[in-house]
Amino acid sequence: MPARVVVLGGGVGGTLVANLLDKELGRDVHVTVVDPTGMHDYQPGYLYVALGQAKGHWLSREERSLLRPGVDLAIEEAIRIHPDAGSVQLARGSNLEWDYLVVATGARLVPDQIPGLVDGSFEFYSLAGAERLGQELRRIRGGRIKVGIAGIPYKCPPAPIEFTFMVDGYLREHDLRDRSEVELLSPLNRAFTIESASKLIQPIMERRGIGLTTFFNVESVDPSAHTVESLEGEKQEYDLLVLVPPHEGAEVVKASDLGDASGWLPTDRATLNVGGYDNVFALGDATDLPISKSGSTAHFEAPVIASRIASLVNGTAPKTNYGGRVMCFLETGDGRATSLRFDYEHPPIPPKPNRAWHVAKWLFNRLYWETVPQGRLPERAPFTTPKEVTS
Amino acid sequence: MATTEITRSIDARGMACPGPLMELIGAIRRGQVGDVYEVLSSDEGSKTDIPAWVEKARHELVEVVPEDGYARFVVRKAR
User: Fold this and answer.
1) pTM check: above 0.80
2) Which domains, and CATH codes, for chain A?
3) Enclosing domain of residue B19
4) Closest Cα of chain A to B64: distance in Å?
5) Which residues of chain A lie closer than 8 angstroms to B43, CB-CB?
6) ipTM > 0.85?
7) Does B3 reside within a domain?
């Protein structure tokens, strides 16, 4: 009988694990992806929707079209995981049994956790939010634009900085920059968490007249007074406020008592096993690992999980470990970008922003659908699968 | 010496992004007054970043312990 693998979530991580397992094990495995919507969203594209540079319908495809024919797709909501019984309960009443479980349920936005955030601010972390922000940007004729972060952890740490640079470019193009203030409210004592990247970014911000307030972790918003307050006790006024909303793990993780208070799964940083179960794995945004929540992280974790499950199915000891590899682009505006590549052992050394990395990001955005979910990136690409780390 | 009971330990060694301080801020945001967090960081910047934020946000830096190749920061949520 083939090994039964259930993958919860049809995002980048879940889709890639499912396809890699089917490719590697063929008839020895039966993989089922469970996803509540059956649609696969390319979330990095939301930033471009907000700036009017992309249309929403380019950013979504049917999950079925991205899965190998041998992989089953159940368009269903998982409501409870039973790790000891080896099953998952689905919303329509059935129970799906598994030998191996991969939890790739991602993160969800919980904007209600910050008082005033829903009425007082805009966001680009959902398609609807990005479209609404895009409409507002087309409407405004200047003013004080503040970009901040209302919860940690959040997806794609460079995104607020990229948005800040891109909004600066947008205002210049529309002759509105001299009527506007643009300011980044950073949760840290610099523009970006990685010091070497901050050293590249901050001079560019200064040259463009982009303000920087440090140690500003958003605690509340007053929509009628147009003010935002920080955890550190400061207050700022705004005309347009763009905030990264707080994130939490999936409902099913919380309902199954498998995660921490925010629903992040306790995950081993090398094996990606969850809560001490040898046959349960997590990847991507769903984990509690203190590492970037990004598609890139899931992309590099997926082959590790596929390899470990393949070893277990073949009756050998799993040897592939996740080495902490992440790669991401960081747009600095004016058609330039830098890249951040690092792992647990090697901190990032970002190159000076240039056009090549901007083009690489542009290419990646376009090639995503045909490459990443299927594990088809060429071996030598800078954003490809890492060499296996063998314990 | 009395040992401080740790509410949660965050092993952020080798993790450049989002980084040890970001993880600590996230934990303190979600935590209760009186909770004690331990952060393990191999990032040199943490030695200045973590004490600076703890002071600005008016929490308490219980101790900083240099270990082999990393430092251990113990912080109490004070408000």
Assistant:
1) yes
2) 3-106+250-327 (3.50.50.60), 109-247 (3.50.50.60)
3) 8-76
4) 19
5) 347
6) yes
7) no
